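Researcher: I'm preparing a figure for a lab meeting and need a structural model of a single chain. I don't have an experimental structure, so a prediction will have to do for now. The sequence is pasted below. Please return the structure as tokens so I can convert it later.
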Amino acid sequence: MSQDLQQYADIIEQLKPMVNEPEFNQVLSQVAGGLPKEKRFLIKMEVKRLSRPCMRSIDLRGQVDGDCQLYEYDGIKHYLDDIAIQTFEQQVRVFGHYSFGVYEAVQATENNYRVMREKSEATQKADEQEDKLSSRARTMAKYNVPIVNLLDYSSRGTERMNFAVALEIFNESNHSIRGISVDVSTEGIQVKLSKESLFKPNEKVQVYFRGLEDEFTMDKRNGIAYTVVKIIRKKEIQYLALRRAKEYPSPAFDQFLESFIHGNKRRYKVNMANTIEAIVNKSCEQYFSPRSPTLPVYVDEIDNELIPRYAMVNEVNREIIHYWSDEANDSRLGFLINSKRLTSLRQKKPEKREMFVYSFTHLQNEKVYFYSASSDELMARDVLRGVFLGFGSRKVSWRVFKVTMTSMTPDQAHAPLSIPDSVGTKIKRQNTPPAPRLMSKLKNLRWLLHITDITSDAGQRRYSEYKFSRNNLSHLRVFGHPRNRVPEEIRTFRFKPQEQRLESRYLLRSAIELKQNDTGITLKGVSEDISVHGLRLEVTGEYSGGIDTPVTIAFPKLQELTRKHNVMDLQYQVVHYNPDRNIIHLKSVAGDAGQSARHFFDDLIKQNRNTLKSYPEEEEVPGIGHALRIINARNVTSLSFLLSKEGARYKPEASIIGQQDERVSRLASHFSGKDQINLEFMFRDRNLDSPFVQQGVKQVKVENLPIRRELFIAFDPSQKDSRMAIIPRFDNQFTSDDMRYNFIREAMSRGQFIALHVMLTTTGKPDLDMLQAEINYVSVYAIHRAKELEERLWSIAACTHLMDITDEVLFRYNFEPSVINKNRILSSQHQVEPNGIKALLRA
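Model: Understood. Here is the structure written out token by token.
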């Protein structure tokens, strides 16, 4: 066989038995349909050549490692050893006669000295290639991580048992093929065969369980009807996935198989591959969702009108809700995602449904006024662009948000277990689809928004350099949101795991004074919510202390209402604060020192339980929060990856690819294998004094706050060297805006510029309740695997989120829209300036 055709050896092997059949051309189209016509023609000619009758005599004496003997076939004498005779007869069965295919196969047996020499030379060459593999390539391989599609795993209708037994299969041409079962269920079977066996999808076959005929009463005359569902080829073997053909029932066999599996599944072990996959998949979801910095908002579409309906809040993204709340703590998130912007997003192509929105607030007469503008809106009012950006960016309330839109369906709310109903009534109950009452609340949902705060110090400084005339500030009212046009309420739900308090909390806004016990600094503010053991406050200044700092809280207004308690000297401890250090979470100190606070709020709550507004412990419609969470997990729009601890360092464990993140996904998959991404570019600073990921995880664990950093990347896929193809620079590696601008310009001249807003968060403790049913199922049959999975769960320490902000950064540096659009299109060939790479590496 020629070198050109060697790559199609597997296809040729499949076609050999069909060469003299009328269906040959049809089979050729099936197995080689994806190849060009000229390649299919060459393959056809090669198979025809191999099938031509051969009259040559074969003499292997002295050419093989074996004793040769006289072997005569069809009047032609040959001298063959045992292996050659076996190969000869096998190939004659394939072709139906002695052909050139038989002749060449016999000349290429494994014990042939020529073949052995060629293999030895090939192995030696491969070893030399392996020795030449650079340390850089080995390093790259270390950062290949698998892609996990959240909540995408197979659910089985019946249990599948690992069971190996001899089978005989008759295909539609009534050819008999011997094989071995791998696993079996009442609905199907997986079979292991040699790769020479030829089957096609949807083919009807008859299966005879030869290995069971001696032990059990089986019908030896009639086989069991199956349909070929899937064909998987691996090296020298292939696996057939067969499904019972329901149109040819066999009640006796069904009853036998059901009792056989039930009685032997502990002996032969249930096949749990899909359950293990589901546990890994679900664990990634529960580490990702409750700490994701992106706020999901679910949008109804009714009579072509888009209405934001629900939002899912966790302890990280809730800062977005706080920002868009007015002085009465009423949410005004609808100002950000108003009808005009939603319509604009819907009209864009699916891969471009995103926008960047800039905002700031103005406080007047103790009332909050919101101003916001998207980049498109600013471009449409170019005269006011510099005024809005220059003035707004100089305010503490300045924010930049990325809003993406993706389509969704209510059906995505159902995520059954990977275990079949037949295992038990509890499993069957958990597999039940959402109730009609719940689905009625979701029936109009068609769109999912993801809102992410991508504000950066570097970006804010850049915008603050914009020159503007204060005489034009009055014109910014076109970007203001009128307080008399209140947006429709967006119901918020909380991610359930790990963030529920141990006790009920109640909304109570009252003036407070916070004093740091160690420094004596006093801040004024207002309480947001209370409980017996904790408080949440908003202060007017900036809290300067740290976590666990002891503070004294005074409630002057409440003191006027009580003589029984002294509420001017309550002792608390700081447990959390937001990035702006103006929202503080407290818990009462242990022991006698915190007793006054606990007694006061215990009495206050008991006496005013009917008037105090509480956060609902139960959902209005049971299960709606969980359903929304599942929908969100199935529609992630940006790339994230989980980090596990290995010794003293952290390494990427699994990745979550976003649906609309084509630019970042292409970058991350450029040096990876199938179903993987390569994250080496995120660890390029690993040899510096303070590598971002390694130091960042430690910092976020201490401060309990997400860490943000901008990453600029020059991407040129035409470069084979990874260090030339991907050149990353974290923001702190630039000393000026001029350096940033030059890096961007050089990157676009040699390929593509990509900017990422990188957010690093911790993942919290694993929530085993969500996984317990499947972990218990695995424990029954393989307790060691269950322990391995639990150990893996506890090793996950952090999650890194990569948000594509390329277009916003280019807008920030005043690149024209045509340049921004051109940068989206990545060409495979680029003209590289002679000094371009050097300039980038120096940056």
